[in-house]
Specification:
Oligomer: single chain
Helix content: 40-55%
Radius of gyration: 16 Å
Strand order of the largest sheet: 3-2-1-4-5-6
Protein name: Potassium transporter Trk
Number of strands: 6
Bound molecules: adenosine-5'-triphosphate
Strand content: 15-25%
Number of helices: 6
Shape: globular
Length: 140
C-alpha cells in the first residue's frame, strides 16, 4: 500500500531513504534548509521544500500533520533533531523514526516520543560483525 512519508534532513541517510521509498512507489515530502540538497531529490519526491523543520508554523503550512510517517534524518545538530521530533509528536504523526548520532542522543529522542531510533553506523557495524562471523573463512 502506498505510504505518505515526510523526510526531514537530506544528508546521505535521508537522501537514500527518499530514493528507495520513491522506487518502492511511496509519496514523499522532503525538507531541508539547504537548497542544493533539496534540488538533488526533486526528481524522486512528490514535493521537495527548502525550509527549517524546527519551525512549527512552517511544518503546519506544509501540511505535515496529514502524514502518517516521518523520518528525521538530522544527525549532527542534536537540538534541531530533538525539537523537530517533539513538534512532529505534538502534531500527532503516528510513526516517527529518527536518526541518532550516539546513545545519549538516542535516549533523549526516546524520551520525547520517537517510535524508532536508528544509529546507522553502529547498527551497520554490528551487522557486518555478524556477517563476518558467519563467513567460512579458511586461513591457510
Ligand atoms: P548523513 O550522515 O546522513 O550524511 P548527518 O548525520 O551528517 O547526515 P547532518 O549533515 O547534520 O546529518 O544533517 C543532514 C541534513 O539535515 C543536512 O542536509 C542539513 O542541511 C539538514 N538540516 C539540519 N538542520 C535542519 C533543519 N532545522 N531543518 C531542515 N533541515 C535541516
Amino acid at each position: 500500500m502506498k505510504k505518505e512519508v515526510v523526510i526531514i534532513g537530506l544528508g546521505r541517510f535521508g537522501t537514500s531513504m527518499c530514493r528507495e521509498l520513491n522506487r518502492l512507489g511511496h509519496d514523499i515530502l522532503a525538507i531541508d534548509t539547504d537548497e542544493e540538497k533539496v534540488n538533488e531529490v526533486s526528481d524522486c519526491t512528490t514535493q521537495a521544500v527548502i525550509a527549517n523543520a524546527t519551525d512549527e508554523n512552517v511544518l503546519k503550512s506544509l501540511g505535515v500533520r496529514n502524514f502518517e510517517h516521518a523520518v528525521v534524518a538530522i544527525g549532527d545538530n542534536l537540538q534541531s533533531s530533538v525539537l523537530c521530533t517533539l513538534i512532529l509528536k505534538e502534531m500527532g504523526i503516528s510513526t516517527i523514526w529518527v536518526k541518532a548520532r550516539d546513545l545519549q542522543h538516542q535516549k533523549i529522542l526516546e524520551k520525547v516520543g520517537a517510535d524508532r531510533v536508528i544509529q546507522p553506523e553502529y547498527e551497520m557495524g554490528v551487522r557486518m560483525a555478524h556477517h563476518l562471523n558467519s563467513e567460512k573463512i579458511i586461513d591457510y
